[in-house]
Write a structure and sequence with these properties.
Helix content: 25-40%
Strand content: 25-35%
Shape: globular
Distance between the termini: 59 Å
Number of strands: 33
Number of helices: 15
Bound molecules: guanosine-5'-diphosphate, magnesium ion
Length: 597
């Protein structure tokens, strides 16, 4: 395809503003799939992605479109993830494009992730076409949202398209705008091969599949390619495009987006952002690439049944094949036995991995409190990264501790502002900015990630009745007055319940955790003290009183079948329990004990 007939674009939007629906419509209007193949939201392929309406891996689809000028164009649509945990993945997808459709729900207006995503698109110099979606809704307010796009984002919205991805109204104009308003790629077919590694994933039939954007030169089957950063050489087995069915093609030229396979064993060998070149005739220019995505949230994952440990290891290995940003290494816990310390891009990422492990691999798991990475500066001058509160060095060896801080952008109707400010202040936030666009407030706060990682997002949703949107990026590490708090159940420390907390908050958190555990741990035949402690100092205490003997006696009365049922039920319940010395702690206690409310 000649360069002038190629358009590479992404759709950027806040979650639920209609990105997937529009993508489906574009595929349908250009005949990319037959009606039978047209499942709703074809780009969100993973079951969980569909269920939660989120996209995690960049997906791409090539559309053939005959425009009003009579020419046929190749339109490559790269879908990008829409959640805050995956903003890093957005930026690399955008780098493979020349333009972006900015989709804004005309009944909602600009949201925090609209901003975050569109700024990323502006950063990589994309041409942006604003698209107001959901104009079929009675609540759509096109003029207000256009003004907001100009005021808040600062781009011209006078030629914004007005569409309904649901009914199809205006979708033909979107296709014309892609052709007439977005620039064609440039590139030199005669130059040495230079291509960007956009993404990679594991496919059961094809093995590792690499998504590429060719800048210069061409790439075809049999060619020896070199990943310049990874210093690895492979021979191409197949090049192709996704329509979104994987379709082999003879070659991929400049400006094109497609995939390659090359008997690559592991996704980890294909680092996103790497430059791919011809091993025999390499380019001299390495593309600027990306920062690797680093996990920011860590937690322990343990099998409820110790016999499942090997299955858990295998399952994690399989997930990792597809998701190089998920990390895990073996960990042993005095309380929970053998398991893994895992690293994630954020809390949603953590939840998704945990759910996939339980659902797709049928494992019963205990997840410990999520924690961020602390820099521990020791008195001997050395620094260690702490991924697990249980590994905190002896306080006498610690000079000071640094914690990660974020810059958070929150948008919400102004009536909820009071509650949001209070929440941010409670979480040690430092207000940076407060601006208005009509009745919507836009708040910028600096916050310690430690205070956000657990339930900040849930609390934000609840104080704003679901109307606030949130986005963040890590900015720096700052010293903090942090301590390790331990929880002792029946005088035994439960390492999986250790947390790192700001010393001003330790007392309240300790008390809250003890109260929660008192409710979460069932009564036993004996009295159980629950204590929170810093070093050797107890800062909070609760006691679970002993069960009266006749209560159990009563339970076991009655006929045999009822007794059997009770016993079975008990057995099933047992599976979700964990023995600590003489005390049984239910699995849910490990997460629930940490909720702040
Ligand atoms: P995404 O999160 O941006 O991918 O959003 P989706 O495409 O999944 O859409 C979110 C919700 O909005 C879904 O329930 C869609 O059916 C609905 N939706 C999308 N476009 C329109 C539209 O033009 N009009 C109406 N009324 N609903 C829409
Ligand atoms: Mg979607």
């Amino acid at each position: 395809t000649p360069l002038k007939n190629i358009r590479n674009f992404s759709i950027v939007a806040h979650i639920d503003h209609g990105k997937s629906t529009l993508a489906d419509r574009l595929i349908q209007f250009t005949g990319g799939l037959t009606v039978r193949e047209m499942k709703s939201q074809v780009l969100d392929s993973m079951e969980l992605e569909r269920e939660r309406g989120i996209t995690i891996k960049a997906q791409t689809v090539r559309l053939n479109y005959t425009a009003k000028d009579g020419e046929t164009y190749v339109l490559n649509l790269i879908d990008t993830p829409g959640h805050v945990d995956f903003t890093y993945e957005v930026s690399r997808s955008l780098s493979a494009c020349e333009g972006a459709l900015l989709v804004v729900d005309a009944s909602q207006g600009v949201e925090a992730q609209t901003l975050a995503n569109v700024y990323q698109a502006i950063d990589v110099d994309l041409e942006i076409v604003p698209v107001l979606n959901k104009v079929d809704l009675p609540a759509a307010d096109v003029d207000r949202v256009k003004a907001q796009i100009e005021d808040v984002i600062g781009i011209d919205s006078s030629e914004a398209l007005e569409i309904s991805a649901k009914t199809g109204v205006g979708v033909d104009e979107v296709l014309e705008a892609i052709v007439t308003r977005l620039p064609a790629p440039s590139g030199d077919a005669e130059a040495p091969l230079k291509a960007l590694l956009v993404d990679s994933w594991y496919d059961a039939y094809l093995g590792v599949v690499v998504l590429v954007r060719v800048i210069d030169g061409t790439m075809k089957k049999g060619m020896r390619i070199r990943m310049m950063g990874a210093e690895a050489v492979y021979t191409i087995d197949q090049v192709g495009v996704s329509t979104p069915k994987k379709t082999p093609v003879a070659e991929l030229g400049p400006g094109e987006i497609g995939y390659l396979t090359a008997s690559i064993k592991e996704v980890a060998d294909t680092s996103v952002g790497d430059t791919i070149t011809d091993d025999r005739r390499p380019t001299t220019e390495i593309l600027s690439g990306f920062k690797p995505s680093v996990p920011v949230v860590f937690c322990g994952i343990f099998p409820v049944d110790a016999n499942d440990f090997e299955d858990l290891r295998a399952a994690m290995g399989k997930l990792r094949l597809n998701d190089a940003s998920f990390e895990f290494e073996m960990e042993t816990s005095a309380a929970l036995g053998f398991g893994f310390r895992c690293g994630f891009l954020g809390l949603l990422h953590l939840e998704i991995i945990r759910e996939r492990l339980e659902r797709e691999f049928n494992l019963d798991l205990i997840t410990t409190a999520p924690s961020v990475v602390y820099n521990i500066h020791q008195t001997d001058g050395s620094m260690v990264e702490l991924h697990n509160p249980a590994d905190m060095p002896d306080p006498v060896r610690i000079d000071h501790i640094e914690e990660p801080w974020i810059k958070a952008t929150i948008m919400a109707p102004d009536e909820y502002l009071g509650g949001i400010l209070k929440l941010c202040e409670e979480r040690r936030g430092i207000q940076q900015n407060l601006t208005y666009a009509g009745t919507r407030a836009m708040l910028v706060y600096e916050l310690p990630l430690n205070e956000v990682v657990f339930d900040f997002y849930d609390r934000l949703k609840s104080v704003s009745q679901g109307y606030a949107s949130f986005d963040y990026q890590i900015t720096d590490y700052r010293p903090g007055n942090l301590v390790k708090m331990q929880v002792l159940v029946n005088d035994e420390p439960v390492d999986a319940l250790s947390i790192v907390v700001h010393s001003d908050k330790a007392q309240n958190r300790g008390r809250a955790m003890c109260e929660k555990l008192k409710d979460l741990i069932p009564r036993h035949m004996f009295k159980i003290p629950i204590q929170a402690a810093i070093g050797g100092r107890v800062i909070a205490r609760e006691t679970i009183s002993a069960m009266r003997k006749d209560v159990t006696a009563k339970c076991y009365g009655g006929d045999a079948s009822r007794k059997r049922k009770l016993l079975d039920k008990q057995k099933a319940g047992k599976k979700k329990m964990r023995q600590f010395g003489r005390v049984e702690i239910p699995q849910e206690a490990f997460i629930k004990a940490l909720k702040i409310d």
